[in-house]
């Protein structure tokens, strides 16, 4: 009797194993396993945040802003323009670089301006922000970071800058441009590129020529280099536009907000 029960249990166990093996190798079971794995991967990909891009999106060099902003900030035929290439990366070797803009407005036409610089790629940290007053006349203006350690750019880091103008007293900018800057290591080759006004180290080459023209507007060599750089960004129509100098910051706000 005991032998009979043992044989019966063994038979049932063998049958169970055979059925389990059949289910494992059956095509429908394999398909279900694949579908489950695919669904799991899909869920994981939806939950995982996308990796930040290695290069920022194109710079927005031409003005835009609130509805009707261009009409509110009355100007001539030209619009606000950031003097920077559209495609990134656009680099500097300076800890405290200078940014240049064509502004078709004078101080009387704009209540105030605002320049801010955020640390990329997530822009959760604001390195610098200031309100400013424009020079009296329209022309090429510059904005420089204060020469203080707190405002120094770090190497191999992207920063997103915003240049905004407020003309009608609203809390929304009427016109604005924005773009990116990346600080890279200073090398002998990059120093040489700045000396010959190469567009490869854009921010520094442009700032050097602009500073030279502000001091010596009739320097023919500087004029030629300036024209070449502006042609590089399709802004050769601005080659005769006067340098009117730096904006005047109203105050230095707290950083790291």
Briefly say what this structure is.
By secondary structure, the chain is an alpha+beta fold. Helix content is 33%, strand content 25%. Helix 5 packs antiparallel against helix 6.
General description of the model:
This protein is of the alpha+beta class. It folds into 2 domains: about 1-45, no CATH class; about 60-250, Immunoglobulins (Immunoglobulin-like, Sandwich), CATH 2.60.40.10. It is built from 6 helices and 11 strands. The strands form 2 sheets. Strands 1, 3, 5, 6, 8, 9 and 11 form a 7-stranded mixed β-sheet that branches. A hairpin with a 5-residue loop joins strand 5 and strand 6 (about 125-135). The longest helix is centred in the first third of the chain and has 24 residues, at about 1-25. It starts with a helix and ends in an 8-residue tail after the last strand.
Instruction: Say which CATH homologous superfamily of the largest domain is assigned.
Output: Immunoglobulins
The dominant shape is globular
Largest sheet: 7 strands, mixed
What's the total helix number? 6
Beta strand count: 11
Question: What assembly state would you assign to the polypeptide chains in this entry?
Answer: single chain
What's the Cα radius of gyration?
A: 31 Å
By CATH, the topology of the largest domain is Immunoglobulin-like
The structural domain count equals: 2
Q: Assign a percent range to the helix content.
A: 25-40%
Question: What would the average pLDDT be, to the nearest integer?
Answer: 83
Termini, distance in Å?
85 Å
Strand content: 15-25%
